[in-house]
From TrEMBL:
Gene3D superfamilies: FAD/NAD(P)-binding domain. Pfam families: FAD_oxidored. SUPFAM superfamilies: FAD/NAD(P)-binding domain. InterPro entries: FAD/NAD-bd_sf, HdrA-like. The keyword 4Fe-4S applies. It comes from Paenibacillus forsythiae. This is FAD-dependent oxidoreductase.
Amino acid sequence: MNSYELKSREIPLNTSYEVIVVGGGPAGCTAAASAAREGAKTLLIEATGSLGGMGTSGLVPAWCPFSDKEKIVYRGLAEKVFETLKAQMPHVKPEALDWVPIEPEKLKVVYDDLVTEAGADVLFLTSLAEVVTDGQGNVTAIVVLNKGGLQAFRAPVYIDCTGDGDVAAWAGAEYLKGDSATGDLQPATHCFILGNVDDYAYLNGALLHKENPRSPIHEAVASGRYPEVPDTHLCNNLIAPRAVGFNAGHLWQVDNTDALSVSRALIRGRKMAAAYRDMLAELQPASFGNAYVASTGTLMGIRESRRIIGDYVLTVDDYVSRRSFEDEICRNSYFIDVHGTEKEEKSEAGSAQTITLYGPGESHGIPYRCLTPRGLRNVLVAGRSISCERRVLGSVRVMPVCLAMGEAAGLAAALAASADGDVHAVDAGRLRQRLREEGAYLPEMSAAGNKGDAR
């Protein structure tokens, strides 16, 4: 590729913030709200025009489970977001905790209120353009681009909630990406909403999920009549009256750090949404005969990208052992859910990379050290880019645990900003105490499970 040398010029520099969060998905929203709640002057930078990431712009139609089959384990701000939205959806039972539908427009406002009422500022339609470092592990500024042109921001502490680890990676942090042998990434999914669905027929008809052997998706894929319907993945939920949200089908070889790759996937994803509508209208006419594609996600549903190497790497053994850590900042009970290669997903068995589900009441801890990038002094990472093995990413990548991690990162950033900015020096005991005071589920070691390495 040819190179082009930018001309040296001055751009505006804003130094008024103590904590800057980049990325306004679930982790970014709770990180910004948590930091601001602690009194830190906080800015949240988001590339799109709304907060919420996959649950809003990505149109993921349901929350992954909030419970360990006994109780809510994602508490604090995570529970607040969950319960606030649920209360606005009359067709959802108040006691529902697992696979609860999401109405994206309502969720956008829930996140707006969460962040702004905590006192954080939000900058929409603003993209990260550059990360400036001093070569000693400190980020000294970030450069962003929006309608105002290039602008620089400097703060004592930065939180990377981009989902791809952009801030940390561009600052020089070590990272891993994809399968170590093949480089394969988990496939993406372009979620969509079908409108004008017959609610009664949908709720009383055949379960569409692939786990139902009578689901029409099996006939559709086997027939070959719908070439744009790639496989049997077909999660769906009634998200509002006459509106069904779909997390359906896979798009392979999509790299969210490659704009051309994502652009091609979005074009194909929109065609796939139309194909699903036509397939369902033919095979389930009572439910979908008059349906139409009401919306497709403005964000691609990405399951895997960079994993930033931190002070601790969460392992499959940690997961299987239900391990606890002296510095854990949340618990997680979601199963290891790794979507497979095209060959695996199109086989009878599907992906073989899942691990036996936890029993009721079981969970594992996520240590603070998974949020602290090795070699960077004033950067935290929260969300799917935390330090973990690839298979564990299949569990910690989902929205409830990202909400919990974000709250911890924001609180830690505020503590670091009030000191010398070193995120590695944050007192984990004090962090955990404040999280507990704000309602986090952090059981004592004896009640949580095995004690992990607290190096």
